[in-house]
Amino acid sequence: MKHDMLVDASVNARAWNRIAAQDAHAGQRCNVDRTTPPLPERIEWTCWPGRGPGGDFLCELSGLRVAELGCGTGEHTAYAAAHRARLAIGVDIADQRIAQAQARFGHLPALVWRTGDAARVLAELPVLDVCFSIYGALWYADPAQLLPVIHGRLRPGGLLAFSVNGPRPGELPGRRVDNLTLDDRTRLPVIHYSYDTGTWRRLLDRHGFTTPEVLPVQGPEGSPHRTLVIRARRT
Ligand SMILES: C[S@@+](CC[C@H](N)C(=O)[O-])C[C@H]1O[C@@H](n2cnc3c(N)ncnc32)[C@H](O)[C@@H]1O
User: Which contacts qualify for 2-9: CB closer than 8 Å, 24 or more apart?
Assistant: First the structure.
């Protein structure tokens, strides 16, 4: 792995493990039973429920081998399994997130969880029909490093679909350091990669993905955020 990728991976894993610990603590405090959550009825590609496309932005998943890169607590990997994927693999760099996903959805058939940086884990996976990611590895890892690995794992014609935030107004595109703020006001750095629509199209084209569709979804009124929901086919 390149130096930047190692830095990104360790900074981001630390942040998301801390978020996982905070969530686990909050769950205990509120006496919430998180072990049997309901399956999501639709894929939420944005953090604004109901905004943006739903599950139909992916193809019919029945019988396919699917991986989610940066699965967090696993809802959408579980969605893929519930929609009869032959194999649904949730990958996350934060081992505590994977532990939570396993505790919540480990009872479902066809689900597999893998801990580690998406680029490293992908190299060990079987050939896939679909790769997807929701504010996950395509946002938190350098796409110029990750896209070639995804290309190498998807079958020809396979689908890549993901959501990322675009640059905020006035923000320069590229590798950016941001902060997540915990409930106790601790600020944790995270590293993400922020590109506009045209750059995503060029990156996908350069790395062997064809017919990219990029849907910009604006946040609610007053939000500076704009999510890009993107899909393309491997050549
Ligand atoms: C904003 S959360 C999104 C989680 C989930 N997709 C969702 O929509 O709830 C980002 C997730 O990506 C994971 N992540 C960040 N960088 C990653 C990488 N290089 N490889 C795999 N997972 C990564 C983080 O650990 C975190 O769980």
Answer: 2/142, 2/145, 4/142, 4/175, 5/117, 5/119, 5/141, 5/142, 5/145, 7/191, 8/140, 8/141, 8/142, 8/175, 8/191, 9/93, 9/117, 9/141
